Amino acid sequence: MELQGCYCAKPVELLTHETMETIHARSLEILEETGVVFQWESALKALKSAGCHVDFEKQLVKFSQDVVGQALKSCPSTFRVKARDPNYDLEFVKNRVYFSPQAAPSMYDLDTGVRRPGTVKDIKEITILQDALENIHVVFPSIVYLSDRPIPLVMECVLAEEVRYTTKSILGAAFFYSAQWSIEIAKAVGIELIGGVTCSPPLTYQPDQCDGILRYAKVGWPVYVGMGVASGATGPATLAGTLLQQNVEFLAGLTLAQIVNPGVGMIYGTESIPMDMRHGHQALGIEQYMIGAATAQLARFYNIYSATIESMTGAKIPTDQQVGYEKAMATLLLAQSGVSYIVGGGGIDDEACFSIEQLIIDNEMYGMVARYLKGINVDEETLAADLIKKVGPIPGNYLREAHTRKWWKQEQFIPTLSYRKSYEEWLKEGSKDVAARAKERAKEILRTHQVPPLPEEVDREIAKILEAAEKEKVKK
Amino acid sequence: MKEKEQKLLDALQQAVIQGDAVKTDHLAKAAIEQGVDPLLALEEGLGKGIRMVGDAFGKEELFLPELIIAADAMKAGTSILAAELKKRGVERKPIGTVVIGTSSGDIHDIGKTIVATMLTANGFDVYDLGVDVSPEKFVAAVKQHNANIVGISSLLTTSMINQPEVIKALMEANLRDKVKVIIGGGPVSAEWAEMIGADGYGVNAAEAVVKVRALLSLDI
């Protein structure tokens, strides 16, 4: 069975092998001499029992080279993530590339274009869209603040909607200690999650994220550890220094996960972005993509998998050209660099806002990039030497040839949004720009796309889990 | 008889959809042999098939490569049936007769071929004169086929200037009032059409059909 996803045959490389050896050696030094903070008792205990030097008062862990080496050795070279529909299982294998949306705390309203807080209904609609969109491979918790749910319960409520409205694979989170309940919800449905956790630079894992690593590793689901260094503020200002610091942080998280469950899948994530010292905002742009590309290379160096956000564009609305050039540059570069899991669909304004139009546009862009990754298919039939001889010079043409009928659709990416007709036709069809066309496509999908419902007893089970989570997390 | 006739009409229709010119040729001959009314075979066989292909093209279910071979298949069958009608002295009145070609000095074939195909698919009798067509050839073809539409294509600005030469030749042959002239091609515009005294300009093949229908006062 052919699983979804793209394949990057020949990744672009920004780093030499020697550079990566150096980054690795310096990482081991820093892990041993400076160490990393884990603000969670049971994480400290697990690391201690594996032979790390732990200062419980400072919550600081220093790693011996042996412990880290052992952890790296136990990482699997391939793993699978189970979806509701087995056709949508993820299979992390060498050079596989997946696309996924990103998270944001607010919504760009599809009808009014006004920015507003998200709701459960938004999650439902965005999940249905993700389920339908052909180039979205992993469903992502797109809105991380819901005005109609208690804040500590947001991740669980988001996941509950996602499992109802998609049969694709899903990324789970750990914020607000949601890993425990997320795992229960996924188990009730019979699926697995990618367990997403983040490090807080410099060199610190916060309590809920430690809890996430422990729980996702224990259940045996892949652990996605994301680093978000702000170069110049929470890490060195140099790209090389940023890569080194996030490598230290990642290896620390990886070691904890492998101690808990040797052989659990690992994803090396980054959303590191320099700080723009002119005003203190993030320097959203090309350096971020370069860090992502280099991270993919480091992940391959360790024979594991990588993830990064395609572009946290600073543009505020989906019709701004800045969204287009930033996302296009980022996505193509990152896919060419063989990033295993590219996040970012639907995101605008520095991860602050989610736009459905943008998700539809990004899906189109992913389709084009997927076409690039397919490469140029060369054999006797595609070269068509015999055909060129047969058709000959003008007035020969290829429109009548069976070869044309067979191949044109296989060779071309056929867009659903990009406009290619004449100016006159464009006027006649209402002078719509790409965001307007994306909005129409979104509405069409929402009107027609059907997701098989969960069995009633599973739905009831999820409701019970949410109730239990609320009792423990909110009413306490 | 009725059932057999229907089977033949269906087969003609299918052969057009499949773009099989050999089959439409055979089936058109078979229709005549079996006593099927050639007008019926034209309208309910070939015509129905090409209309279905045209609709599917409009809905983006079929594409140019299929449309073009369907039009070829349609033409192969039509020439057999039209010859038979002529032999019987039956007058057939197509909705319009088009002669089309690329103007002299220009050997670009594709755009004009697509327009010819779309017009064929919409029920017009189309005579494609090919590329590098001189004004004299246009005039001769209008006379020969009793055409009421002349289509002149140019991809080059250097050949575009030969389009008014065709119009001039039609005037000199006293044919200008009898035909509507449409022009098209990359550098051509509505302004240019007006300047040289053409009757219409289509920005693309679909538009060309709309313009021709309007010029002939057919329902749009």
Structural account:
- The complex is a heterodimer of chains A (476) and B (220).
- Chain A has 476 residues and is α/β, with parallel strands linked by helices.
- Chain A has 17 helices and 21 strands.
- In chain A, the strands form five sheets. A nine-stranded mixed beta sheet of chain A has the order 1-7-19-18-16-14-12-11-10.
- In chain A, a hairpin with a 4-residue loop joins strand 3 (53-55) and strand 4 (60-62).
- The longest helix of chain A has 22 residues, at 239-260.
- Chain A is globular, with a radius of gyration of 23 Å.
- The mean pLDDT of chain A is 96.
- Chain B is an alpha/beta fold and 220 residues long.
- Chain B has two domains: 2-87, Orthogonal Bundle (Methyltransferase, Methionine Synthase (B12-binding Domains), Chain A, domain 1), CATH 1.10.1240.10; 97-215, 3-Layer(aba) Sandwich (Rossmann fold), CATH 3.40.50.280.
- Chain B has ten helices and five strands.
- A five-stranded parallel beta sheet of chain B has the order 2-1-3-4-5, sandwiched between helices.
- In chain B, strand 4 (180-184), helix 9 (190-196) and strand 5 (200-201) form a beta-alpha-beta unit.
- The termini of chain B are far apart.
- Chains A and B meet through helix 14 and helix 15 of A and helix 4 and helix 5 of B.
Order of strands across the widest beta sheet of chain A?
Answer: 1-7-19-18-16-14-12-11-10
Cα distance spanning the termini of chain A:
48 Å
Task: Identify the CATH architecture of the largest domain in chain A.
Answer: Alpha-Beta Barrel
Oligomeric state of the chains in view: heterodimer
CATH class of the largest domain in chain A: Alpha Beta
Kindly name the structural category of chain A. alpha/beta
Q: Say how many strands of chain B there are.
A: 5
CATH superfamily of the largest domain in chain B: Cobalamin-binding domain
Helix content of chain B: 55-70%
Largest two-chain interface: A-B, 15 and 18 residues
- Overall tally of structural domains of chain A: 2
Mean pLDDT of chain A, rounded to whole units?
96
Predict the CATH topology of the largest domain in chain B: Rossmann fold
Number of DSSP helical runs of chain B: 10
Our count of helices of chain A gives 17
